[in-house]
Amino acid sequence: MASAAQRRIKSISYAKYGYLFILPFFLVYFFFQLWPLINTFILSFQDNKDSHFIGLDNYKTILFAVGNRTAKNVSKTFFMSFKNTIILWVGNFIPQLILSLTLAVWFTEANTKIPGKGFFKVVMYLPNIITAASVAVLFLQLCGEAENGPGALNLLLHKMGIVDQDPVSEKYDTIKFITGMWQSRGVVMFIQTWMWFGNTMIMLMSGIQGINPSLFEAASIDGATGMQTFWKITLPLLSPILAYTLVTSMIGGLQMFDIPYLYHKDPNKVSNNLKTVAVYIYEYFHDQVDPKMGYAGAASVILFFITLILGCIAFYMTRDKDAIAKKKMMKKNAKREKFASKQFGGYGV
User: Fold this and answer.
1) Would you say residue 157 lies in a domain?
2) Quick check: 34 and 25 in contact, CB under 8 A?
3) Is residue 77 part of a domain?
């Protein structure tokens, strides 16, 4: 028989210590995540000046331009910012995914021997850990225009004969990488792709390495080409990772703030070509003259629901249809067997 000391040791519950260890996380989450989120919902139903409850007026103003000229400007700016957000996200996600998927397949190919493969993986991931402020300042210097002196990129284009120089004023006819609409958008898309393709590549590589190698061996024995193996085996089995990549990239893209906000010459005004919804929210919330916290809160909630809806659509479109059909068939067979057992068990007539 167990002694009294042994029984006492067995009766001690250590679960409370686990709760104590995870308690700091929940405290930090409540004060820095949950409460600000709740407060945002509260602000979205309040007036911009005296903070009294006004119901859905802020939402009506942003979505339907209900009100005076100021309200119409608020709505117009929001939809312009949302359009910019979609353009910047799509413009960096598509090349990012193509580049990451190509490199992931290349690096995980068993028959391809790449010297220094580990070094290249590290180098391609490094931009992901550089702060956005540093990257924005770097590209502002590289893409300088004629007004403040040409940057390194325009000087390079001049040496290549693409950018001309006025012989009288000795000024360069520089490409407007900062103030031009599509030029500035192209630079921001390139920055986002450059910063995040390494992270996407690592995730896709982990997904490819999780595929059973015997499938690739069988395809090789059957004489399948590399492209056939990619389209018939690799890509279908990568669908869960691709769905995760799509959703996380979409969430990050819709909340894009740092690079569009920092990539401009005027420290007090972001170009309308780069103003995203996150920048729109920030500017209205931190307006020094007339802060519009109600509009900022409503825009945040609208962005939350847009992200939620698009995320659900993405999950629905990338779901495993074969697994769903198999699950439905199993349920159907189970019901059929249950009905048959009732019939033969004397419950049916």
Assistant:
1) no
2) no
3) yes
